Amino acid sequence: MYPCVPFRAVVSGCRITLALGFGGKAFQLSVRNPKYIIRANIMGASGDGWVPRPLVVCGPSGAGKSTLIKNLMEDFNGLIGFSVSHTTRSPRPGETNGVEYHFVSVEEMEESVNRGEFIETAIFAANRYGTSKAAVHSVLSCGKLCLLDIDIQGAKQLKLVADEFVPPPAFVFISPPSLETLEKRLRSRGTDSDDAIERRLAVARAEMDYGTEPGNFDLLVVNDDLETAYEEFKEFVFTLLPQ
């Protein structure tokens, strides 16, 4: 796998060709609809290449999604890149701007959305979250599979335009074994008030109803045992990578 390197961009109409600086390797992004990221191809000098398929991962807070993604990023270091989302919420202790999230003001977020710079946005707990085109571009320009950690609202938005992606995104839902188990996990954290936990559970109930419905996701992982869940998740990701 090639490292991320500087590139030169040539724009012609609605096509952007990015010429990378290693031995004829080229990254090409073709756009039919400027509102969305449409096609990304990684082409080698020999003509053989790999087209990165976006990986969309959803799941309620407390399902273990963050841990599974962290393990995946460590095991597939250099092959998978994480799309860093934007949010209007304040950073939590230990969070770094540009690492966990891009932390922006409500005004900045609204202006960027109005300029068409986001492929999806969602509201949670009075804060806005979203995935920018630039965040995805930064991963694709390195020739990596782009992982998007978004909620159900965002996933539904992407599904509406999934046929605009070549190749289409793969959707994975991480679910706790039950709401009762989820509640125990949330309470064991000791970071949320009772009211906050009840709100999270209400959101989780709706997410699980949608996420576990057959046909809504390419893979449903029930995280009852972390090791077993991760193996299932990892095996699916193997199918998205070059063989």
Count of separate DSSP helical elements: 7
- The CATH H-level superfamily is P-loop containing nucleotide triphosphate hydrolases
CATH hierarchy, class: Alpha Beta
Instruction: Tell me, briefly, the overall form.
Output: globular
- Going by helix content, strand content and strand pairing, the class is alpha/beta
Number of strands: 14
Rounded to an integer, what's the Rg over CA atoms? 19 Å
Order of helices and strands: EEEEEEHEEEHEEHEHEHHEH
As for the CATH topology, it is Rossmann fold
Helix content: 25-40%
Kindly report how far apart the N and C termini lie: 12 Å
The description of the largest β-sheet is: 5 strands, antiparallel
If you average the pLDDT, what whole number results?
81
Task: Label this structure with key terms.
7 helices; globular; single chain; alpha/beta; 243 residues; disordered N terminus; 5-stranded parallel sheet
